[in-house]
Amino acid sequence: GIITGTGMAISNVAAITILGHYFTTRLGLVNGFATTGSCVFTASLPYVINALLRHIGLFNTFRCLSVLGASLLLCALSFKTVPQDDEKTPLRPVERRVSFARRATSVLNMRIWKNRAFVVWCAGCACALTTYYVPHVFIVKHASLILPTYKNEVLVTCIGASSWAGRMFWGRIGDFPRVRRVRLHQMAFFVTGLCSTLVPIATHFAALATLTVVIGFFDGAYISLIGAIVYDMFGRRDAPQAIGSNYGVCAVPLIIGMPLAGFIYDAQLSYQGTYFFAGAPMILGACILFLM
Questions:
Q1: Which distant-in-sequence residues (6+ apart) come within 8 Å of 132 by Cβ?
Q2: pLDDT digits over 227-249, tens only?
Q3: How far is CA 139 from CA 147, 167, 206, in A?
Q4: Dihedral, CA atoms, 230, 231, 236, 238, nearest 10 degrees?
């Protein structure tokens, strides 16, 4: 799990960062288009994995997923950094010997943490992401308990398909000059939190499907604008560190939030409390972004 998570983090940060090297306009739309691949797999993998489990078993299914992940090696070969005009390669190294401590501190860019807007944005994202993926993870099991006769895997497909549309739509909206991209993030957190609190009272499949479509659509606003917001704040120079730092900060509440949501289910044997709990951090995270 640690190795897989590390590889996914590196590939994700690189994929978002590299876009700013090639595009300076319509960065929101570009990010939305580049991240639509995950939506395709979100919508299709539940069916593919179920078929693989039936025909080749668990171990061979994991091997197939490993091959799919290894394809990122080929994709990474297409990444090529475009140097800025003011970047010049020195003819010879200025210092031949640098202490390990100095090298370590040079990796950590402290300039980004002096930007108040970035700190507030990271705090709001971290708060919202505490339970952000609760609807994605638990929706099928919740639906299976209250609607056992339906094919509830369709709900995951609804999230993936609507997220694809949302990334293209909100990415384009975020490129308009008068639109503040951070406010779209704020709206995404609030709507997702509100929909999470409504899941327990949705007792019909059509209602659950509608909520998952809305959640997926506004998930597109969050995913597609991360890179664009960071480039607005820092430009190409500090964007890689800022994107990685944001993901690093948000990883901590993600680690804590999901087990806590599972603990609530174990205590109540129902996902109602889990979804009511999930909405609060997302709405609070949206409120924190008012400080920007």
A1: 189, 192, 222, 254, 257, 281, 282
A2: 889 888 888 788 888 888 898 89
A3: 11, 21, 14
A4: -30
For the chain, how big is the Rg over CA atoms in Å? 21
- Counting Cα atoms < 13 Å in the Cβ hemisphere of 76 gives 12
Q: Is residue 131 over pLDDT 70?
A: yes
CATH code 3.40.190.10 for 2-63+112-291: no
Q: Where are the domains of the chain?
A: 2-63+112-291
- Cβ atoms of 46 and 156 within 8 Å: the answer is yes
Distance between CA 224 and CA 156 in Å, rounded?
Answer: 19
In the chain, pLDDT over 70 holds for what percent of residues? 90
pTM over 0.85: no
pLDDT of residue 89: 45
CA dist 183 and 189 (Å) reads 10
User: How confident is the prediction for the chain on average, in pLDDT?
Assistant: 83
69 compared with 171, residue with greater pLDDT: 171
Cα–Cα distance measured from residue 262 to residue 274, given in angstroms and rounded to the nearest whole number = 7
Percentage of residues in the chain with pLDDT exceeding 90? Answer: 21
Q: How confident is the model at residue 90 (pLDDT cuts 50, 70, 90)?
A: very low
